[in-house]
Amino acid sequence: MKKPPALVYTDRHPGPFMPAIPSLLLLLTLSPQDDLQEIRIRSGPYTPSPVSLAVQTYLVELGVTVKDRHSQPVCGLKPSDFELTDNGKPQTISRFSEQNSSRPQAQPPATGPPQSAQAARSIVIFFDDTHTENFTLQKARDAAKKFLSAGILPGDRLAIFTTSENPSVDFTADPAPLLAALDQIKPHPEVGARGLSGCPTLTPYQAYAIEQRIDLELKQRKVGEAVRCNCGPEPTTTCIQAQDGAVQDAATSAWSIFKPQSASALDRLGQVIHHLASAPGTRILLLASPGFVSGGMERSTSAIMDAAIRARIVVNSLDSAGLSTNRSQGMEKMVLDELMSNASIATGGRFIQNNNDLSAGLGQLAEPSPVSYLLGFSPSAAPDDKYHPLKVKVKTGDRAESRPGYFSSAPEKPVETIQQRIDRLVASKDTMEEIPAAIHVSGSLQVDITVDARSLKFSEHSGRSLQQLTFVTLVLDPSGNVIEGKQAVVDLALTPGKRAELESQCIEATTSFTLPKGAYKIREVIREALENRFTAQTIAVP
Could you tell me whether strands 7-10 and 507-512 are parallel, antiparallel, or unpaired per DSSP bridges? Predict the structure, then answer.
């Protein structure tokens, strides 16, 4: 008697469908303590991706705010009122729009229709918890709580994210999970946040400023520290001279440690902006940070600003360090606040600094600037992988604020996702047999698939064998047009016993369709995730 298969999937067991995910990231993020199901099935209808043709153009966009001598926003300007130069060369403005915003008061009206979807806000509060000390972070958390109590309007959806990714709350109109997340936010300091030990001790700013030679006074102070440590009570000229080079080398070494930490914070900010870009309504990012060094990372900062501008995201920044009374820190604050200042200016937002009333600051930043302009141009020169300074002037004599520059690089070709690869193979007529599988189709439009589990490789993690299978089944008419389709993703996290059982028998998948009798074809595509292998066949219905 034939043994029953060790794993059977039928489309009568639907779950919340998700597209195939790269490799096995979903399972690998689970800890050994999680209650892992050995077999999880997600299924749903399959809809082929529309075919689109896109012409890639190189367009640089920048947000511009214009203020008069009384610091009031200026409206009603036209493209001819602006002069724009790229690396000192005049550019033709090919895209232009005036951005106006208006918001109702915080208290809801007593009567009248509900707020329109266009007026709703999607707001992200982004805490830099890797560069913020506990006292400063506590003030920012309290300010956010007050803002949530008074600033949410009907139709608003808020999210909370942090540079450490812990905690995070996706968009919701319910303040309860947001307030709960705020209570969980705590500092996650990076290595050497207070300075790398040694003589002299170097903070990230100090290492960068000395390595880049932008603060000579600071370097002399650090050389003095090194002399006192290493040259004794009566230092010789030779020892003093040696400390100058030693401090420069120490700064270069320290910055090589600190720079990846800044890069990681920029990467996280870019991810959050990408997520916010798909949210509805007015998109606002509230960035609360004491600042961090982003100099020398123009490629990353330029990409962040480009993404925000194209998604019409207003970045409003709050220096959570509050009021500074130390005038000697002017250069340091300028360097640490560079990203926040530039991102706010570039997107038509605002940057609040030297203000201890963080609650009022967040409330102000939740509102987009009443008037800003969006300018776009196609650079007259080819991309050269260099940073290009930008200058914007207004012929009326008013003050224009915009991004200081951009990194000139050719647009990257989008990387094909796993789902896109599946879609492409589904739409083709190719036959592939990389996974040993038998596909049988009956006249009743039932598709039975048998996969030899012994042909599959598994990734070992926390005592489990991990693999993922994707099945896409389409019914086609004689001309090859799609009539109906289904897709299922099977996640395997097998114990040793279940894996042995699976390999001694087989994996079966059954999908059926209820359609009138007629001439049909079945297109079946199977993918296994670990080695990214495929099997694809087109079979005529008998």
Answer: parallel
